[in-house]
């Protein structure tokens, strides 16, 4: 039996969220954005309607609109059956919109740029500052492209636009392949969200040729031996460097991002000071991490209350000083594709270290120590082993040394 219900996109949010119609029929599921938004505190999950509330006086009209949508989908389904047509999601959507066109006033069309602007504002309430910065930078490039070349809207996002826009980012802004890929990924996330909300019908951005560029970066990790060198430096004469070193080591032995390992509080230290338990800022995941002896020593030093961190940029600058003092200066050749050209450079290793090296070092060192990938991924948050293996940094020699212990080679 076909049945309609209404659900909230984000039922636990504190701000307005979209209401979806979900229609289950003939072992299939049709999901449709109503275009309506409501704060979850006004929503009655049982009745799937807005609560009668003085704080939301327009609830009768709001519920009447939902009633019309429910009647519309039921009528659309029956009409298809009566006409001898087997229902599917595409036909249901067309028939539903035909049903609603006479009853409901269509909202003013939201442009791609209006949507991005609104979405960035919404995201400030539930996304990290780093993510908002990425959104704003991508939006800045899109506006520049629009002003210099041609208008951009949902219907103009095509493979032709994609190819031209790649050239704009690569050649005119001299961006690396990975940076270009990050902006394409962000544009696709904007389009996915707009499509979910029923604002976009153009799905050309999901074409396999509309791909996110990715180039394996020449990032480094620090081995256990190198981390021991860093731990042993006497930095008492430089409190700023000592603080940076200690925070960085916490990151190296917990696998947490900068935004997380710099926010550890006494209440995050549980199970008799043997486990750190935090909800990560970027993904909202809860992770539990056994305390390494180095982390226990550092926490004891600060009485479980780590010092306030500098900004990520300042920390990265001071960190290079720390790594240099530890004598980690071996030369590393790096290559990067910028402006469509491959650029090579040779730098001492300490210049390539940043706060994110801590997380990469954690994953790589655990992998080399034969800790199962699935256990490491529980902490790093990688969804697939493939993405995890791209993240770790293991040289050919290290990989060969690791394989020597495998039964196949013995």
From TrEMBL:
<dbReference type="Pfam" id="PF13102">
    <property type="entry name" value="Phage_int_SAM_5"/>
</dbReference>
<dbReference type="InterPro" id="IPR025269">
    <property type="entry name" value="SAM-like_dom"/>
</dbReference>
<comment type="similarity">
    <text>Belongs to the 'phage' integrase family.</text>
</comment>
<dbReference type="InterPro" id="IPR011010">
    <property type="entry name" value="DNA_brk_join_enz"/>
</dbReference>
<dbReference type="Pfam" id="PF17293">
    <property type="entry name" value="Arm-DNA-bind_5"/>
</dbReference>
<dbReference type="InterPro" id="IPR010998">
    <property type="entry name" value="Integrase_recombinase_N"/>
</dbReference>
<dbReference type="InterPro" id="IPR035386">
    <property type="entry name" value="Arm-DNA-bind_5"/>
</dbReference>
<dbReference type="Pfam" id="PF00589">
    <property type="entry name" value="Phage_integrase"/>
</dbReference>
<feature type="domain" description="Core-binding (CB)">
    <location>
        <begin position="110"/>
        <end position="195"/>
    </location>
</feature>
<keyword id="KW-0238">DNA-binding</keyword>
<protein>
    <submittedName>
        <fullName>Site-specific integrase</fullName>
    </submittedName>
</protein>
<feature type="domain" description="Tyr recombinase">
    <location>
        <begin position="217"/>
        <end position="404"/>
    </location>
</feature>
<dbReference type="InterPro" id="IPR050090">
    <property type="entry name" value="Tyrosine_recombinase_XerCD"/>
</dbReference>
<keyword id="KW-0229">DNA integration</keyword>
<dbReference type="InterPro" id="IPR044068">
    <property type="entry name" value="CB"/>
</dbReference>
<dbReference type="InterPro" id="IPR002104">
    <property type="entry name" value="Integrase_catalytic"/>
</dbReference>
<dbReference type="InterPro" id="IPR013762">
    <property type="entry name" value="Integrase-like_cat_sf"/>
</dbReference>
<keyword id="KW-0233">DNA recombination</keyword>
């Amino acid at each position: 039996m076909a049945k309609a219900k209404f659900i909230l996109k984000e039922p636990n949010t504190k701000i307005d969220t979209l209401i979806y119609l979900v229609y289950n029929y003939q072992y299939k599921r049709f999901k449709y954005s109503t275009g309506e938004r409501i704060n979850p505190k006004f929503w009655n999950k049982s009745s799937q309607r807005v609560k009668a509330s003085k704080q939301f006086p327009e609830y009768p009209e709001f519920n009447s609109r939902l009633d019309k949508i429910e009647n519309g989908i039921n009528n659309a389904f029956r009409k298809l059956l009566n006409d001898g047509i087997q229902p599917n999601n595409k036909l249901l959507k067309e028939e539903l919109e035909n049903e609603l066109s006479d009853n409901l006033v269509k909202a003013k069309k939201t442009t791609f740029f209006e949507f991005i602007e609104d979405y960035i504002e919404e995201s400030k309430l539930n996304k990290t500052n780093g993510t908002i910065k990425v959104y704003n930078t991508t939006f800045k490039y899109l506006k520049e492209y629009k002003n210099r070349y041609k208008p951009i809207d949902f219907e103009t996002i095509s493979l032709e636009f994609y190819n031209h826009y790649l050239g704009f980012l690569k050649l005119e802004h001299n961006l690396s392949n990975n940076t270009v890929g990050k902006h394409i990924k962000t544009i696709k996330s904007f389009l996915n969200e707009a499509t979910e909300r029923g604002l976009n019908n153009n799905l050309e951005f999901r074409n396999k040729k509309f791909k996110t560029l990715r180039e394996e970066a020449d990032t480094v990790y620090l081995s256990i031996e190198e981390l021991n060198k860093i731990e042993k430096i006497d930095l008492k004469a430089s409190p700023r460097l000592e603080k940076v070193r200690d925070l960085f080591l916490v990151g190296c032995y917990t696998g947490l991002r900068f935004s997380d390992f710099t926010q550890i509080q006494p209440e995050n230290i549980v199970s008799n000071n043997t486990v750190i338990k935090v909800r990560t800022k970027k993904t909202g995941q809860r992770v539990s991490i056994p305390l390494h002896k180095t982390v226990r020593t550092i926490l004891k030093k600060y009485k479980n209350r780590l010092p306030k961190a500098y900004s990520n940029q300042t920390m990265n600058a001071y960190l290079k000083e720390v790594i240099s003092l530890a004598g980690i200066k071996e030369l590393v050749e790096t290559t990067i594709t910028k402006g469509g050209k491959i650029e090579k450079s040779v730098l001492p290793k300490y210049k390539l270290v940043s706060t994110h090296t801590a997380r990469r070092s954690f994953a790589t060192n655990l992998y080399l120590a034969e800790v199962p990938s699935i256990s490491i991924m529980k902490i790093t948050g990688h969804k697939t082993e493939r993405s995890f293996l791209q993240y770790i940094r293991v040289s050919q020699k290290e990989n060969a040394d690791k394989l020597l212990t495998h039964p196949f080679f013995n």
